[in-house]
Structure formats: structure tokens, C-alpha cells
Amino acid sequence: MRSPDPLARSVARPRPARLLVAATAVAASVLVLAGCTNPIDQLVQGGVQDGVERIIEEQTGSDIEVNTGGGASLPEGWPAEIPVPDGSPMFSMAAEGGYQATFEVADAAEGERIKDQLVADGYVMEGETDMGQMKIWILAGPEWRVSLSAILPEEGDTSTSPSLTYLVSPVAG
Question: Where is the secretion signal located (predicted)?
């Protein structure tokens, strides 16, 4: 009897961490894109949000919290020492001790300001990437690793606002 192909097994049954990341990315995309809706659509979106939470929880065995739209807030347990821009997040979630939040911001300078504040608070810059329309900063503090992504609209695009996305995870000890 031939042993199963390990690659096929890996593809057929992804590890929970990879599944959680993939499901989170899909959920974030669906929920953020559904943000500008009328009241009936908002009721449907609430059902979609609950359904996304349930699917991710069932598939990964992880307890998550997802918030979207005008009523979104930072997830319960968000580290108080992590600065955020003014206003409410467009999307936020918490899962397995980590957090994600996306804010609409005035411009890319907001990401720079948050990054500079984290550095002033003792966070160490681990990486920085500038891809023109997207800037990414990865910083580590004593308890938290923070990835900030500033996304800017194309030149002349007035239909999209700049956004700042946080991925906050505990520093492995």
C-alpha cells in the first residue's frame, strides 16, 4: 500500500493557522467592500458578518470577533499602548490573541505619525517597505508586534480614501 502524498494532504487539509489567515483576508475584503450600503443592505451585511464569524470559528476552532461599518469599534482587549488614528475603524477583528483593524485616514502621513509614535514609545523597526501606493512598517515592542499598512488611492482617484491597517500580535516569548 502506497503512503499518501504529503503535499496532497497539505493542500487538502490546510493547517488551522493558514486557514485562519486566508479566511480572515477573505472576510476583511468582503466586509470592508460592503461598508457603503443602504439600511436594508446593512441588515444583510450584519447577517453576512455573523455568518463569516461562524464559518471561520467552525473551520479553525478559533473564537473570533468581527466588527464592520459605521458601528465598528476596536475589538475587546485591543492593547491600550497601541496608538490609533482618530475615528472609528471600518473593520476590526480579534482572533487567537491577535488583532486587526482598518481605519480610513486623511493621508499617508497618518501612518508615518503612528509609526513615529510607536518608535518614540520604544518599539523597534523590524522592516519597512515603500511600494508607492502602499507603505508597510513592521515594529516590535516588549509585548506586541505591529504591522502597519498605509494604502493610498491612485493619483486622481476621488472615490477611494487612504486607509491604515493594523495587524497586532503577541511577541513570541
Answer: 1-34
